[in-house]
Amino acid sequence: MSDTYADHIDTAFLQLSFAIKLWHYLDVHAIEKNEFDIPLTIEDPGNRVCLRENEFNTYEDLQLAAENNISICFGAAAITLWEGIREHSGLSSGKLNPQNNPKENLAALSYMIRCCFAHGTASPVWSIRDAKYKTVYWVGNKTIDLARIADKQPFDYSSVGGYETLWLLKAEAVAIGLL
Known about the structure:
single chain, mainly alpha, two-stranded antiparallel ribbon, 5 helices, 10% strand
């Protein structure tokens, strides 16, 4: 097993896909809450977890949990992507300048998205403390303008062009040699 983040990027993005598909499935295909929300004990050698039944009061609670799972997985994928870029490229957040060149622009955007989730896992917020990151970024054919984003402003997927931007960021990072 490898210890590099780059080796785990595909898994992180697969988890994000799973989270989105699970949310969609629960929205389109109702499942029986009583068949899902059951008492459950899972045992491994030296480890046991017990979950009680009826943890979710309503079906909407299940859907909300699935939606929250998207945020958790998006954050994990964003953090893993930045760490993979950092490891592979040797770029560090302290020395990045998004205006220098396309590689640093892309890496800096990855770092900024990572910071939203690393500094606000349950409720992601922008953590833009250094003015150099308040700029325009390019990912594929998208322009992401973080110039007016306030530090501690709640994260919104539309501020980065939607969920798909993370996949575009990954693809472009590979294409330009950041991964």
